[in-house]
Amino acid sequence: MNATNRHWRFFRAGGFDQVRLDEAEDLLAIDELDQKLWVALSCPVKGIQFDERTLALVDADADGHVRAYELIAAVRWAAARLADPQLLGLAQDGLAVDDISHDTEAGQRLVAAARVLADELGKAANERLSVAEVSTAQARHAARMLAAWEAEGKASAPLGGDSEAACEALLAVTEKVDDFFLRCRLAAFDARASEALDASEDTYKALAADALLQEARLTRLPLARITAEGALPLRSTLNPAWVSAMAAFRSRVVQPLVGDLETLTENQWRDIQDRFSGYLAWRASRPDQKDDDAVRDLEQLVRYVRDLLKLANNFVAFKDFYTRQGKATFQAGTLYLDGRSCELCVAVADPAKHAVLATLSRICLVYCDCVRGSEKMTIAAAFTAGDSDQLMVGRNGVFYDRHGEDWDATIVKIIDHPISLRQAFWSPYKRLARMAGEQLQKLAASKAKENDDRMALAATKGVAVAGARTAAAPAAQQAFDVGKFAGIFAAIGLAVGAIGTALASVIMGVLALKWWQIPLALTGFMLIISGPAVLLAWFKLRTRNLGPILDANGWAINARACINIPFGTSLTQIAALPPNAERSLNDPYAEKKPPRWFYPVLVALVVAVGAIWWGVRVLLS
Prior knowledge:
This protein is an alpha+beta fold. The protein has helices at 24-28, 52-58, 68-80, 105-121, 131-156, 163-189, 193-197, 201-208, 243-257, 266-284, 294-312, 319-323, 351-358, 421-471, 482-511, 517-542, 547-551, 565-571, 598-620; strands spanning 10-13, 16-19, 40-44, 65-67, 232-233, 263-264, 333-337, 340-342, 345-348, 364-372, 375-383, 396-401, 406-415, 556-557, 572-574. Among the domains are: 10-129 and 293-322, no CATH class; 160-201 and 215-287, no CATH class. A hairpin with a 2-residue loop joins strand 7 (333-337) and strand 8 (340-342).
């Protein structure tokens, strides 16, 4: 069946169509689905909430990322080894022996391994072997294989317990010693080659030209002087860059095997290599490097049956995230902070690097360092409801991971973007109030500083002034400057008049309207102030995109995964009283409110002032 005639089913979420993978047939046919319709084409093995062992098995090339072709290959691999591939759609924990195909050689090996394990556990052929049981068996099998391998190594070790250190010292100089003896053989073949094979005078002149000679530049020079005799010195006349490595080789390999020599011949060198050949072959045959382990393949199969459908629904589609039927693999937990709970939290390794790309998501992100005992992690939490007035670096909250463990969370970085239309509506008024408050605080601070400076100056001159007053006649009192104070009063009067005129104009304009026009005028006035901010926030909130947040974590997001206003509101819950809660409004510490008559009297005074001003203008006109 090809992709053109297969009946695919899609659901609309996040502003784009996502494929439904509900049954085994859907999973088995994902190789036929155009990859342009996949939500993601790659995801990291580390840092997501999914079984790391399963991801490591799917990651065939072990590059740290699960890619589309690897997921397709995993589905095909599992289907070829199951008696009924429909089991992939059940996502069950484990397999019975009868569930494994007997038709292929690979299946027969798995059946044999499953029967052995079932016999060990006392289970019948139709009883399922769980993922935990098979994984435990795999661990036991690996331990047995490793023990057998280590026993074999002890038999082939040329120096007993010191063989490993000796082997490392031998491997460190093998290429250089082989190169030395090959050059010596060529020099013995033709004496004219000795000078050419050794370091030339021009090479040394180039080294000498360096203002600061680096030892690393000497590593490519021959190990020692090239001679036709072909004897390798072990103590003196060695290349300075190789003295340390050769000293370790001499003490750990040559002395225990050959003796305390000053020079080493090529025959002695070959003999040393032969004595280590068996040990080197043993090292290369470590069991975990084998790929024909039937028990490991059995573990891989039971994990694929349990996890592949879930992985596909968090890779090919983001079903868990957009349907809210469960948490997606990239959701690390829930952050509680500032009276809200944020469910879109992702683990990040480097906040500064992550923020460079994540800011393109147009989502308000709060980066928190989370600590639990000696464990540490960093998360980026998306705030998608409420406002950001009380979000600031240094505030503390609590983060609950996917296992329910609580972490101390502290804000370390904030990417500020609009959170809600309500915040955008009130933002101009809050900015105005904040600006006015800051200006008043600056004015009060400057006046307080002037008073402090004046008092300090008076204190320093107090004694001198008192002495001067006793010795000299009292000075004449400064005359009252009428013109100066008249100017001050005039300036104050002009300011008050301007404010009064503006206020009276607004009031008279409102009073000139009909009663039903006044609410419309006030609404229009508020729209003029808040409208641009709300419109800009609306455009940004509609284009919030999950992609950059995940791309910054190593994903390859293939779709415009939008988080619109309704869906974003569901990702951040604001504190609310539970249903049927009893609430008492009697607050003994509440601030005292003005008397009931205060606001009506204030309104009446404003109206009276406006009326008087309007009457005066009418009379004067």
